[in-house]
Amino acid sequence: AERASVEELREMRAHVSAMGALLTDPHAFMMADLAFARRIVRATQNLAFELLFNSVVRTVEGNRGIELAFFANARATLAVYGRLLDRLEARDQERARATAARLLHRLDRTTVDALSGFLAAMPPAREQDASDTGPARARKASAKTRKTKTKTTQTRNRSADKAPTNSRQKRGAR
Predict the structure, then answer these.
(1) pLDDT tens digits for 76-114?
(2) On the chain, which terminus has fewer CB atoms closer than 10 Å, C or N?
(3) Mapped to the 3 state alphabet, what secondary structure does the chain carry?
């Protein structure tokens, strides 16, 4: 975002500040986080980067529950964004890049650790019946498919039995 104007940086700073009010709403925080990232992407003035980001946003928005990944470390995220903006406002591009790489990597690691702890604390999922998994499940599905095919074939055969078989029967059926 070294191409970011002073106004764009000011707007990014205000956006990060406003994100602080969303620390109780995981979905709103995620959406604001994506909006901040979009501001950074747009400031690059790189169309390819923006098109790639659009794909990322669609993927994120299409996965329910992903808010937890954004929200697991929200306060640290805001601190990282603040330091990144400090570097960008100082126009120290090398330090901004290094800061982004180092801090975002650390933030990602912390977020993964937080999510792992959260998931480990969750009650175990209900146990599946052994017949619902593995080879037994495949056999059930196969048997169901065979049943459906058999019914379809029987229906076709009954229809064929009732259908006229020669020209006279066909004319008479009309």
Answers:
(1) 889 989 988 998 999 888 888 887 787 667 767 776 776
(2) C
(3) CCCCCHHHHHHHHHHHHHHHHHCCCHHHHHHHHHHHHHHHHHHHCCHHHHHHHHHHHHHHHCCCCCHHHHHCCHHHHHHHHHHHHHHHHCCCHHHHHHHHHHHHHHHHHHHHHHHHHHHHHCCCCCCCCHHHCHHHHHHHHHHHHHHHHHHHHHHHHHHHHHCCCCHHHHHHHC
